[in-house]
Write a structure and sequence with these properties.
Helices cover 52% and strands 12% of the residues. It has 462 residues and is α/β, with parallel strands linked by helices. Bound molecules: D-mannonic acid.
Length: 462
């Protein structure tokens, strides 16, 4: 078929011999991030990075991948576009029906790494139990421990996973001790924007590659970053990963804080405003001069200062460029999901920092008010949408009866300490700023409330 889009040929490595990694969570992000890093290692001849991909929820995807023996195409879209075939996922399993095989895969002699991208809300004893079952079998088989790497947007994601596994193994102290002695849980920062596959992408896959590519195609941006703590069960992996562009560092914190605050923090703000205003994609938000200027202020005045990633300003500028990539068509409603799990990671630290300096952050107050307004599940034009969140029922049961009452809304939603942190949820000046912001949103609407804020700032700095 004729196509202007380049198609990179498939890697020529022996997939039947490729093994070494079990990955939990076969979502779009994993397939465009870590799996492509491991694909590079496999293509360079190191066969220890073949992946047993475990679908945690999406059985349809697992079935689709199976039909193509795990192969799937990734469209990398920037100034130029190219399809890359990825074959690193050599085997697929479903956690729901094949947990015994998952345990066996974790306990296989060839397995060296166990990785996860299961989203923030899935860090539960249930997932840890699956891991610990596999590790118990490894120990019983006299096998070495594993590097167990979380690839989710959580602060201290490796430490968090480790403590969850140790909690679950408490009843079996010998296993607990074995995990501590033999396994390593590096913290990491992962970054690549990967929207859910759209109908438009499926159409491109059909035209460029043929029908067999439709169900598994996925697209992403050229940029990616994986910064991981130098803390591996096999220390020589550090050098191996560096060869394909992974940054292996002693301390991930500066990178993690910058990414969660600037990228994810900005994303969440973009998402709630956009869902309310009816802007469907991230690029639709940043293409508007007022919204883009407002976002820059949020990033440079409130989310950025205090970060210790040395190049955070350059990173913030590069994010604005990434957000403008129109090819991604990254849906704002998708990003808005799971807000109760995301806000504590993304906004709460910056709010706390600014409050400690003595002034409630005004841009974050408007974003927080937008989140509260978003929980009503209806946009500024009266169109309804679904609030996807593990706590949606509880949150909407607070938000909906308080509709139209800014004070009641903020006094109830703003005091949830698990979302805002113990300080902000008790800080009267902050709650007052959010209440005022909520009134502004109700009175003027999203676009005019942003513009008003910019004008007031310009006048007060004149
Ligand atoms: C986004 C992230 O959906 C979201 O909440 O903020 O998935 C974001 O695209 C990635 O973390 C980028 O690395």
């Amino acid at each position: 078929m004729n196509s202007a889009v380049q198609v990179i040929p498939r890697g020529a490595y022996d997939r039947h011999r490729a093994a070494g990694v079990v990955h939990l969570g076969l979502g779009a992000f994993h397939r465009c991030h870590q799996a492509m890093v491991f694909e590079a290692l496999l293509s360079a001849g190191d066969l220890r990075w073949g992946i047993v991909g475990v679908g945690m929820r999406n059985d349809a995807l697992v079935n689709a991948l199976r039909q193509h023996e795990g192969w799937y195409p990734v469209l990398v879209e920037g100034d130029t576009s190219a399809w890359h075939w990825v074959g690193a996922v050599t085997q697929t399993l479903m956690a729901s029906t094949e947990s015994g095989q998952v345990t066996a895969a974790i306990a296989a002699p060839t397995t060296r790494w166990l990785t996860l991208s299961v989203t923030e809300k899935a860090y539960t004893p249930h997932v840890a139990a699956l891991i610990v079952e596999g590790l118990t079998a490894r120990r019983a088989g006299g096998l070495p421990g594993l590097t167990i790497a979380s690839c989710d947007n959580l602060r201290d994601n490796g430490d968090c996973l480790k403590s969850l596994c140790l909690q679950v193994s408490l009843l079996n102290p010998a296993v607990s001790q074995w995990i501590v002695e033999h396994c390593r849980f590096p913290n990491s920062m992962v970054d690549r924007i990967v929207p859910a596959a759209s109908a438009a992408l499926k159409a491109k896959a059909l035209i460029d590659l043929g029908t067999h590519a439709i169900d598994t195609a996925i697209s992403t941006e050229p940029f990616w970053e994986w910064v991981i703590q130098d803390h591996f069960q096999d220390p020589s992996d550090a050098q191996v990963l560096r060869q394909v562009g992974v940054q292996v560092v002693a301390d991930v914190r500066p990178f993690e804080d910058a990414k969660l605050g600037l990228l994810n923090g900005a994303h969440s703000a973009i998402a709630y405003f956009s869902v309310l205003a009816g802007w469907q994609t991230v690029d639709a938000f940043v293409q508007q001069p007022v919204a883009c200027e407002w976002l820059e202020r949020l990033m440079f005045q409130e989310l950025g200062p205090g970060l210790i990633r040395p190049d955070w300003k350059a990173y913030a500028n590069s994010l604005l460029t990434r957000f403008k990539n129109p090819a991604l068509a990254h849906k704002t409603l998708q990003i808005a999901g799971d807000s109760s799990q995301k806000i504590p990671q993304r906004w709460a630290p910056a709010i706390g920092l600014r409050l400690a300096e003595g002034a409630p952050p005004r841009y974050l107050a408007l974003a927080s008010a937008a989140w509260m307004r978003y929980l009503l599940g209806v946009d500024e034009h009266g169109a309804q949408f679904t609030v996807q969140d593990p706590l949606s029922q509880q949150l909407q049961a607070i938000a909906i009866p308080a509709r139209g009452d800014a004070n009641k809304t903020v006094q109830s939603l703003g005091r949830i300490a698990s979302i805002w942190g113990p300080l902000a949820s008790q800080d009267e000046a902050w709650l007052k700023a959010v209440t005022q912001a909520y009134r502004d949103l109700e009175t003027y609407g999203v676009a005019a409330a942003m513009q008003r804020m910019l004008v007031i700032d310009a006048v007060s700095h004149a």
